[in-house]
Amino acid sequence: MCFCSSLFLVLLLAVGHEGLHVQGPSGPLVAQLGDSILLPCFTQVPLPLEGLRVEWRKTDAESLVNIFQHGGSRPELQSQSFSGRAHFFPDEISKGNFSILLRNVERKDAGIYRCKVSLHRESSETEMEIKDIERLVVTGADRAVVASVGEEVILNCSVDSHLPANKIEQVSWRRTDGDIPVLLFQDNETFPESSHERYQGRTEFFITEIPKGNFSLKLRNVKMEDKGEFMCEVHTSDKSGYAIVVLQ
Ligand SMILES: *[C@@H]1O[C@H](CO)[C@@H](O)[C@H](O)[C@H]1NC(C)=O
Ligand SMILES: *[C@@H]1O[C@H](CO)[C@@H](O)[C@H](O)[C@H]1NC(C)=O
Ligand SMILES: *[C@@H]1O[C@H](CO)[C@@H](O)[C@H](O)[C@H]1NC(C)=O
Ligand SMILES: *[C@@H]1O[C@H](CO)[C@@H](O)[C@H](O)[C@H]1NC(C)=O
């Protein structure tokens, strides 16, 4: 009892002496669509829970992300858009760690967040930005593509990402049976010579469409043996995705 109250006093003195000073991340945050992201907010010195209030808001709409007061978080006050997705770490709060874990990140989560910590009459806040919500969605054809022998056919593959096309390091079209290379795009260049002999001279990208993320494949002089599944696989430095197109 005695120990506790003296610790409490020491903490108050530490706060009183240095002023309440919360810290956040050193730069903008980058989140992956659908993943979780940690929004850091902490003090060097732990704070007493009594009289402590931590309020997280997203500043554009002043929407309440979460709030800790009277010794607990108050999820019922959260804005609808953060309901069930933004949690404190209950065991960390007494250590001066008021960070929030935001789950299942959505595109509209990008923006500025403010963590405001108040203790009795003092308060301090930090702001941070979720700058990019990264995504890499690869879409193929929405149905099987039908072609006759000798025809020319387009196999769709489009890449939706927040990234400029030059961040797409590699797009490789392959047949899924036997892993046969059909056409390769890498470091902003097409490598027709890397295609399997079955596809040599018959395949190309629409070069002018590539900056729009359209990596569709043009296949000329369709042969019976082309029937089957084609895969369009896309790589950036840290992510990859693919789509399958069926040719009948
Ligand atoms: C706060 O707690 C979370 C969850 O344990 C941890 O990942 C994070 O590093 C902590 N932050 C600080 C500043 O201690
Ligand atoms: C390919 O993409 C174009 C343009 O989005 C669309 O009109 C067409 O229906 C697509 N074809 C298939 C087979 O999905
Ligand atoms: C890609 O570009 C080609 C050529 O303009 C077009 O035919 C095709 O529909 C485009 N595909 C998509 C998915 O936009
Ligand atoms: C990629 O290649 C295209 C066409 O050759 C060119 O216009 C563009 O500047 C190149 N982009 C980069 C980032 O090298």
From TrEMBL:
Statement: the UniProt record of this protein carries the keyword Transmembrane helix: yes
SMART domains reported in the protein's UniProt record: IG, IGc2, IGv
GO biological process: cell surface receptor signaling pathway; cellular response to lipopolysaccharide; immune response; negative regulation of T cell proliferation; positive regulation of T cell proliferation; T cell costimulation
UniProt keyword list: Cell membrane, Disulfide bond, Glycoprotein, Immunoglobulin domain, Membrane, Receptor, Signal, Transmembrane, Transmembrane helix
Subcellular location, record wording: Cell membrane
Domain Ig-like: 34-131, 134-248
A single cellular component GO annotation: external side of plasma membrane
InterPro entries reported for this sequence: Ig-like_dom (IPR007110), Ig-like_dom_sf (IPR036179), Ig-like_fold (IPR013783), Ig_sub (IPR003599), Ig_sub2 (IPR003598), Ig_V-set (IPR013106), T-cell_Activation_Regulation (IPR051713)
ATP-binding in keyword set: no
Pfam families: V-set (PF07686)
Topology with respect to the bilayer: Single-pass type I membrane protein
Leader peptide range in chain numbering: 1-19
Protein name, as recorded: Ig-like domain-containing protein
Organism annotation: Electrophorus electricus
